[in-house]
Amino acid sequence: MWTELHWVLQAGIALMLVVGGVFALVGAIGMLRFPDFYMRLHAPTKATTLGVGGVLVASMATNWAEGRYGLHELLITLFLFVTAPVSANLLAKAAMHLRNRSKAPVPEDQPRP
């Protein structure tokens, strides 16, 4: 059953959607623009996770305002925030095991491996 939501709640949900969309867009641009595997790995694990999280929080707020529990969205959010860092860590370890070199500049005071 659809009910009209208060304008303040609508504005908050719209803000969460816009913020989530901006984070997802920044993560996607980072995937395209970064020159290196390790830098590309950073973009989806940080920015895109926050982007999807913002959209899911907006969905939870909409369900809560309509009198329903947002259990599905809450579980998706929890699984996303737990699995994204773990999978990124495993990908980085696999790349290090395969001796994938980074193209990032090494600071002057650090010895080159």
Automatic annotation (TrEMBL):
Keywords: Membrane, Transmembrane, Transmembrane helix. One of its GO terms (molecular function) is sodium:proton antiporter activity. The chain crosses the membrane at residues 12-35, 71-92. NCBIfam families: CPA3_mnhG_phaG (TIGR01300), PRK12674.1-5 (NF009316). This is Na+/H+ antiporter subunit G.
